[in-house]
Amino acid sequence: MxxxxxxxxxxxxxxxxxxxxxxEAFIARGYATALVDRDEAAGLRxxxxxxxxxDCIFIPCDVTDDESVRRAVATTVERYGRLDAAFNxxxxxxxxxxxTADGSMENWSRVIAIDLTxxxxxxxxxxxxxxxxxxxxxxxxxxxxxxxxxxxFSAYVAAKHGVVGLTKTAALEYARQGIRVNxxxxxxxxxxxxxxxxxxxxxxxxxxxxxIGRLGEPEEVARAVVWLCxxxxxxxxxxxxxxxxxxxxx
Length: 250
Ligand SMILES: NC(=O)c1ccc[n+]([C@@H]2O[C@H](COP(=O)([O-])OP(=O)(O)OC[C@H]3O[C@@H](n4cnc5c(N)ncnc54)[C@H](O)[C@@H]3O)[C@@H](O)[C@H]2O)c1
Fold this sequence. Notes:
- The protein is an alpha/beta fold and 250 residues long.
- The chain has helices at residues 17-28, 40-50, 66-80, 105-132, 154-174, 192-196, 200-209, 218-230; strands at residues 8-12, 32-37, 56-60, 85-88, 136-141, 179-186, 240-243.
- A seven-stranded parallel β-sheet has the order 3-2-1-4-5-6-7, with helices on both faces.
- Helix 4 links the parallel strand 4 and strand 5.
- The longest helix has 28 residues, at 105-132.
- It is globular and about 50 Å long.
- The structure holds nicotinamide-adenine-dinucleotide (NAD).
- Nicotinamide-adenine-dinucleotide binds at residues 12-13, 15-19, 37-39, 61-64, 89-92, 114, 118, 141, 143, 186, 188-189, 191-194.
């Protein structure tokens, strides 16, 4: 494919879990892909692993550092000439098991900085690049915790509800300029983040409680993300789409 026709994707949180699966899916679909993450060792390993399947570049970036985000987007466009798709997946779940009145200010600030402000920072550099080439598609990674409450995760729930609001607002602002903005809201997905936060007993209890009877795979979220960017109708924008095995359907 000629360079001018090749689409370009930018994925944050690409070193692990859902972001990694999405990066792999974009590459499999022929996108030149920027793998963006603060975990440099894992990112460089991934770049070396994926280079055989397509064009990709690892770019170290902490999404809480606005200048680092600006540089990551600029580096992507310098390398590949344009930006068509972005998946903003870098995130943490923060401290576990604290009710709203017991959480620390440090946890609150950290979760909001990464999970919410980080997404805004990414969009504020991605959107101008997409406008230059007549449009694009952004998918922000929210969570089922962006749609309903989740006891003992107030900072995470607030950040993810914020991501959904930000997504809807940006979709309204840029719809006439060819940029679609959607969010995916994963349920419990089998990744290093969810494994770290769950004892085997808790995992078993949550699976038993779920309609589908299993955790989701990162690749299932990745397929939704790439579909939203690559195949979804132009009319599909401003949505928060649950990929949750019917967790929020009750
Ligand atoms: N795993 C789940 O069950 C689940 C459910 C709903 C939503 N999510 C969301 O999916 C996204 C990915 O989660 P995951 O489960 O794949 O987690 P993960 O821990 O496997 O991957 C997260 C990635 O984000 C990167 N990251 C964290 N902070 C960063 C920062 N400041 N700057 C740049 N990179 C940073 C990490 O280095 C890591 O590579 C997150 O936004 C998370 O909230 C996950």
